[in-house]
Every structure is written in structure tokens, then in C-alpha cells.
Amino acid sequence: MIADDEPLIRAGIRMILTSDPAIEVAAEAANGREAIEAARAHGADVVLLDIQMPVMDGLTALAELRRSTPAARVIILTTFGERENVLRALEHGGAGFLLKDTAPAELIAAVRAAAAGDAYLSPGATRHVVDQLATGRAAARGEEARRRVEVLSARERDVLALLGEGLSNADAGKRLHMSEATVKTYVSRILAKLECENRVQAALLARDAGL
User: Fold this and answer.
1) pLDDT per residue rounded down to tens, the chain (211 residues)
2) Position 75 in a domain
């Protein structure tokens, strides 16, 4: 499902996504309230949610979606000028975020990742935004983050550090000389130990901890 108050943006996203035969755009919404109703009505697996919308903004809608439609994976659409809002979105269970000028292939990759139960953290522009967000909060959050990661083994910390760099499981495996399946197992274990909902939250925690 696509939620954005600009019809041209929605049309462009729909055109990109429907070029992939595995993706169906089940519904569109022009504001946060419509997004909540449409997600519930259509059982959307993935919701692309703009932050700046009338009636109800994306952050408020995200919080409500997490309560009313917890199975829906929410990807936030944003611009560089909304960094603080993006951090709040990720902390409240967003499955990742995309810049509105992202490449079409990256949009499809993000939707596929979210649908598979993963979070999307781009190694490029998205990682840059996360770096900036985490840096802005590091002073206040660093001590708590370092305390939380103490429960991890040395190898788990290695994997977490690569999550913080935005690496995929496959790329992290190459760096650590592990199979992708082994990295996936480590990631699941890390998320459980740190009580993170997804790898985006874990990546932010890694940044705060200075890994």
C-alpha cells in the first residue's frame, strides 16, 4: 500500500512497483487516517508511508498501524530535511526508510526485503542518514547502548557492527567469512538479545554504542 498526499508521487511509485510481477499495489491513501483504514481493509503486507501528510501525519499513523495492523511492515518515505522524524519512526518500529529520490531498483528491493520480514537499510544514502541521526543522539544514548550490547558475544558484536554499516546478510557474511544463513542466525539472536524489533533499530544501537 502507498500512502502519500501527492498523486504524482503515488502514481510514480505504483508504476515502479508494478513493473515487478511479484508485487501488487493493493491500495493507495492520501493521508495517515486513510492509510490506517486501507491497511486494515486490504491486509497490506508492506506500507510505504510518507511522513508529511494532512489529516494525520505519517509518524502518528505509524504508531497506530503498529497497534492495529502489527503484521504490516512500514517503510517510511522521507527527505534529508526530516532526519529527526525519521529517527523517531525507526525507534517506533518502522521497517526502514527510503529517500524520495531513491533509484527504482532500490524501492523494489526495499519492498521485497520488508515483505520477507527484514528491515531495509541501504548501504548508500540511507546509511548516510542513519549515521547523521545516530551522531546527533550519541551523547545522550551512548552509555545505555554500550550497556545493552554487553550481553552479546564477541562474534555477535562483529555482526552488529556490520549491521550498523548497513550491510546485507550476504555482504556481512563475505566480510566475516561466514555463510549468509549463518549471519541470518546471528542477526536473529542479536535482535532477541537486544530486544530490537528489526535490524534498523539494531543498526542505530550499534552506532550509539560506537561499534
Assistant:
1) 999 999 999 999 999 999 999 999 999 999 999 999 999 999 899 999 998 899 998 889 998 998 889 889 999 887 755 566 666 776 777 887 787 878 898 899 889 988 887 777 655 445 555 565 555 555 667 788 888 999 999 999 999 999 888 888 888 999 999 999 999 999 999 999 998 878 878 888 888 888 8
2) yes
Q: Do the domain assignments include residue 121?
A: no
67-74: long-range contacts (C-beta < 8 A, 24 or more apart)? 68/36, 68/39, 68/40, 69/36, 69/39, 69/40, 69/44, 71/45, 72/1, 72/39, 72/44, 72/45, 72/46, 72/47, 73/45, 73/46, 73/47, 73/114, 73/115, 73/117, 74/46, 74/47, 74/49
Evaluate whether residue 152 is within a structural domain: yes
Q: How far apart are CA 100 and CA 103, in angstroms?
A: 9
Determine the straight-line distance between the first and last CA of the chain, rounded to whole angstroms: 35
Provide the CATH number for the domain around residue 131: 3.40.50.2300
Do 94 and 17 fall into the same domain?
Answer: yes
Residue with cell 535482535: 191
Could you tell me how far CA 200 lies from the centroid of its own chain?
A: 6
Of 115, 142, 160, the one marking the end of a domain is 115
Q: Which residue range forms the structural domain that includes residue 106?
A: 2-115
Q: Which three cell numbers stand for residue 138?
A: 550519541
Residue 106 and residue 130 in one domain: no
Asked whether 35 and 47 are in contact (CB, 8 A), the reply is: yes
